[in-house]
Structures are given as C-alpha cells and as structure tokens.
Amino acid sequence: MSSRTSSRTSRSASSGSSRGTRSGAGRSVHRAARVGVAVAALVGAYATTAAGAATAAPAPAPVPTVAEKPLSGGLVDAMSRDLGLTPAQAERRLAAETAAAAVEGKAKRVAGSAYGGSWFDSGSGKLTVAVTDGGKAAAIRAAGAEVRVVRHSEKRLDSAKAAIDGLTAPGGVSSWHVDPKANSVVVNVVTARKTDNDVRAFVRKAGAVGPVLVREVAQAPQTFAAGTVGGDPYYTGNVRCSIGFSVHGGFVTAGHCGRAGQQVRGWDNSYIGNFQGSSFPGDDYAWVNVGSGWWTVPVVLGWGTVPDQLVRGSNEAPIGASICRSGSTTRWHCGRVLAKNETVNYSQGAVHQMTKTSVCAQGGDSGGSFISGDQAQGVTSGGWGNCTSGGETWYQPINEILGRYGLRLHTA
Hints:
Elements: E1 17-21, E2 28-35, E3 37-41, E4 49-50, H1 75-83, H2 87-111, E5 115-121, E6 126-131, H3 137-142, E7 146-149, H4 154-165, E8 173-179, E9 184-190, H5 197-207, E10 212-217, E11 222-223, E12 226-227, E13 234-236, E14 239-241, E15 245-247, E16 250-253, E17 263-265, E18 271-279, E19 285-289, E20 295-296, E21 299-300, E22 309-310, E23 322-327, E24 331-346, E25 349-357, E26 369-372, E27 375-386, E28 390-397, H6 398-405
Parallel strand pairs: 6-7, 9-10
Antiparallel strand pairs: 1-2, 2-3, 4-20, 5-6, 8-9, 8-24, 11-27, 12-14, 13-14, 15-16, 16-19, 17-18, 18-19, 21-22, 23-24, 23-26, 24-25, 25-28, 26-27, 27-28
C-alpha cells in the first residue's frame, strides 16, 4: 500500500520539517523531521535512506529490549481518535501493553511445553497465558499474567496449522491462524463462498489434522501495492509502495513491491538503490540498499496527523495490543493486533506467519510501517476493506525480516 499527496514546500532544517538539496546533484531529496528534537527523515511513507550506507555490511539482528524513554508526541492523540479512548485511557493502555510484552516472554519460559499461547486483554490491562498443565498456574501468576487452562498446547496447534499450510486453498478461503484464546486453528472463509464445494472440502481436510474453528469474513484479502499515481513514496517500475523501517544500509518493505535487482526511485524520481532481497508469495518481505545522497533515520512518518515517531526497538506486541500504521496513501491509522502466525491466501499464493490487525489500509500503503508505541512491528502486506468503511490488514513481522537478511534495525 502506498501513496501520499502532500505539498512539497521547503522549510529550513531548524523548523523541524525541511527538504535539503543533494550536494552536487541540484535535486531535493530529503527533509528533516522534528520529533522532540530535529531528526532527519525522508518525506515518504517510508523510512529515509542514508548517504554512503549502501556499502555498509549488514549486521546481525539485535535482541530487542524494552524502551524506557518517553513515547514520541502525538501517539496518544492518534490512539484516542482510532480506538475511542480518552488520553488518560490511552496512556494507561500503553503502559499496560509494555508491561504485558515483558511478562509474555517470562511466562512462556515458565510454562515450557505446557504453553498454549497468550493474549492481552484491554479491559483488565492484563496478559492471559494459556497452559495445558494447571500445575504451572501459580508460577505464571507470580510472573504477572492471568492463566487459562486449555486442552491443546501451542506446539500442537502450530503442528496442525503447518499441516494445513501444506493444503492447496481455494479462493473462498481467506486465511488461517492459531487462535490461543479459542485454543484452535481458525480457518476464515468468505461468507459468499462458504458453501462452495472446494471450500467445504478444504475445511474437511483441515479438520482432519487438528482442532479447527471456522469463521466467516466479508471479503478475500489482496495486496496493497498501487500503480504510479504521484505522491511521495518510492517507486519500482509502475508500482508505488511505502518504506517500512530504516535498517543500517537501507530499508525493509513488502516483497510483492519488487524483485531482487529491481531499481528503486524516490518521490522526486531520483535513484535510491535496488532490491537486494525479496520474497513473495510464501513470505512478503524485501530490503532495499540506499545511497546516492539518501540516508536512513529511525523515524516513522506521522503525515501531519501525529508528529513523526521515533523507533527505539522491535519488541513484539501481544495479541490484543494497540498498534498503528503509517502508509503513503492513507497515512496514519491505529487499531489492535487480532492474530499472529496467520497464513493469508492471496490470489498470487499463500503467505505464512503474518500478523492480522484491525487497522485499515488501501492501495499504495504496501510495505509501510506497523509500530506499537515506539517498537517496530512489521511491514504492511495486504488486507480487505478501506479506510472509509473499515477492514483488516496483515503485516509481515519485522524481526523475521531482520533475521532473514542479517539486518540491523536503525533505532533512536
């Protein structure tokens, strides 16, 4: 998904939002974005690039840590608008989600093989951990989580989902994922096609390999790349997409936006770099090296809706947590994490290990940033619906991308 239509007015760097002129090239290629202090940031739905960074050797993905610095301004306002919270409620929720993310890893270690998954409850502000062994409950509660005893472990559910991944899904099957709260593999089918013979056959085969729960959805998913229509993101061929996150040496984005070796151009049609790696379908991730006067910064654009957001790490938000998305078509929107490890059945083929959200998106937003607080979560892949009537959107988790290509997230 991508596209942004904003005025390209030049302002001084000290004003907090300006475009400079590329030295020796006479072309405007960057702007400085102020987030508390002036931070250089690219004016696209993507994180900016760095001069000379294209030659930097990729570094191993870091172990995420919980950020203790205050969040960038404007995030609470955006959550209040999209999630129907008061500012005080949004602040309390962010604090509770940060605590839940820290508890999740602890509780998983305590549960061991009895672990059945976990989810954040916005009502109680607590993380709930499912376990198959009630004897683990006291230790998990001591770690700070609620407990639910279930029949199936996460390992059992993941095994069933992996078997379903091996089936060929018809177009009437939207996606499938492990739902820890339901303690089942949820298979989503398009309502209008639920009685199709091939859909019913797929559901029968899925049910034969493990616990399956069928749910209905309104539409089938699609990717959110778009033809070139002007705006301020990046372009490859006639496709416009959005940058996800800056990494040292380039940026990450969606794999369906381009293939390895393809050239990438910026908002002003100047050369940025090339796709160094890309995978789609199966996965939906890619990374682009940068140079030629572009550089990287740890910023996600707020598009004037909120101030630009600093990126301070990549701690994974739990199911149920709030999350926001930045893209060059629909700019800044927030919602909740609905599911993890979901297989999405696009017309081009299935994509695995995706995270589903209630955030809306549209064509041209593909590749854009999903962020929870100041923690990078992933890059926009696709979904259904739009930002007028609503819908759902999936993202490819950031830590998988960093690990796949040996990249290091650029953080503040």
